[in-house]
Amino acid sequence: MSGSGLPMRCGVDESLIVRRWQRYGADRLFVMGDTGARVGSVDLRSGEVTVDLPTLESGLRRAAQEFLRADSDELVLRLPEVDLDDVGADTGPVGARLDRLTAYSWHVQHNVPMGRQGDVIEHLLIGPGGVYTLTVHSHPTSTVVVDRHVVQVDGRATSYVRDARLEARRARSLLADAVGNQVVVRPVVVLETAGTLELAPTTMPDDVLVLDGSDVPGLFPRVPARLSADLIDRLAAAARARSTWAG
User: Fold this and answer.
1) Sheet harboring 151-153: ordered strands across?
2) What pLDDT shows up at residue 190?
3) Predicted structure pTM score
């Protein structure tokens, strides 16, 4: 274990080098490892991210963000000593587990107040794989059954799916107003139970992601990248502003 409490990162590259290329109407950042291996590039005009080494994708995005904040023609960024296998550990409170995602270019907020009626987003994630609102429900000894329309606990229907859907829609509207872009926000219901959980892809609601607690946080770094580094930063800044959620 390293002094930071995280396992040593696997691989030979210990840092990333970022250089900007501006010619013929193009404006791109190229990122390579200190071994010379090409990690990927970012098109600063379109926001498109090209990944050549998937295991270093989160580092590529972070390096690009740091470069744009710096006043320099070249940036050398030391990679964090993290291991993708470690993020999947499912011990401890959900909020603390989600906080581990910050090492993978995710922004995590907890208990975000929304509106004047006392509504709160329990957990908000913004990162390469998109924007998610998460609600956690604990049923230590219950039988939980998930179908396409409802989550049942010991045979009784809950409002978990409906409530998560409404929360995400509201968050989507407020974030879109704040950044001036259409935003996709995926609702997530996390079920923590030591009892019986009947959950399968064929029974999942179409628009709400229902997860076993053991899937958190390991699922999120493995979601395909959907957002550019610039949009991630804009959304994260908007999410931190109280004015965004006051509407």
Assistant:
1) 156-157, 151-153, 143-146, 196-198
2) 96
3) 0.66
